[in-house]
Amino acid sequence: MKILTITGNKPNELNISSEKDKRISYIKEAIRKKIISFIEDGLEWIIITGQLGIELWAAEVVCELKEKYSVKLGIFPPFLEYSSRWPEHYQEKLEQILLEADFSQSLYNQPYKGPYQFSNKDNWLLQKTDACLIIGDEEYPGSVKFFLEKAKNAAESDHYQIFWITPFDLEEIVKEEAELKLLDIDH
């Protein structure tokens, strides 16, 4: 696998209303561990659309990892002015990540015109990547369900791979972090 896309839920779907929510650090740690294992197996590119939540957090992780690993980040918003309706702090976060990305370009060179842009974005991601990493719950995928359906079809008919970071995986990260804190206290 050389090219991976990462997606998952938006903050509101995770009941996260602040960037200071400690759950974000656990999500990022889970993403970091998974990405490092993929890099060690030959991953070269991670491409995302820059969606709020999981994708932006994943992009931040990739930007940090780029300091130590030779992985590249591509960001492909589905259309121009993608973040125009987002809260200002999220717009600023996307702008910062776009500056740090190795490549970025909107898939449509026009503002939002219709839902087909999102559907075509999913198709494009599946054509351009070897696999996807989805952070979420397969039984309750939320807004990821449309991409997931297409990814499952691609996995059945092609050599496409779907990887997961599940709520269970996140619970394990929380336990590991708690154990590390206890070890620090003991010393």
Describe this structure in words.
The chain has a six-stranded parallel β-sheet, sandwiched between helices. Helix 1 (23-40) links the parallel strand 1 (3-8) and strand 2. With 187 residues, the protein is an alpha/beta fold. It is 48% helix and 14% strand. The protein starts with a strand and ends with a helix. The chain has one domain (3-186): Rossmann fold (3-Layer(aba) Sandwich), CATH 3.40.50.450. Helix 1 packs across helix 2 (54-65) and helix 2 runs parallel beside helix 3 (88-100). The chain is globular, with a radius of gyration of 16 Å. It has helices spanning 23-40, 54-65, 88-100, 116-128, 145-157, 167-186; strands at residues 3-8, 45-48, 72-75, 103-104, 131-135, 161-165. The chain is built from six helices and six strands, in the order βαβαβαβαβαβα. This is DUF1273 domain-containing protein. InterPro entries: YspA.
Would you summarize the structure shown here?
By secondary structure, the chain is α/β, with parallel strands linked by helices. The protein is 48% helix and 14% strand. Strands 4-3-2-1-5-6 form a six-stranded parallel beta sheet, sandwiched between helices.
What is the alpha-carbon Rg in Å?
Answer: 16 Å
- Compressed to H and E, one letter per element, the order equals EHEHEHEHEHEH
Point out poorly predicted stretches.
none
Kindly report the CATH topology. Rossmann fold
Helicity level, as a percent range? 40-55%
How far apart are the termini? 41 Å
Q: Describe the strand arrangement of the main beta sheet, using strand numbers.
A: 4-3-2-1-5-6
Number of domains: 1
InterPro entries: YspA (IPR010697)
Pfam family, one: YpsA
Protein name: DUF1273 domain-containing protein
Organism: Gracilibacillus oryzae
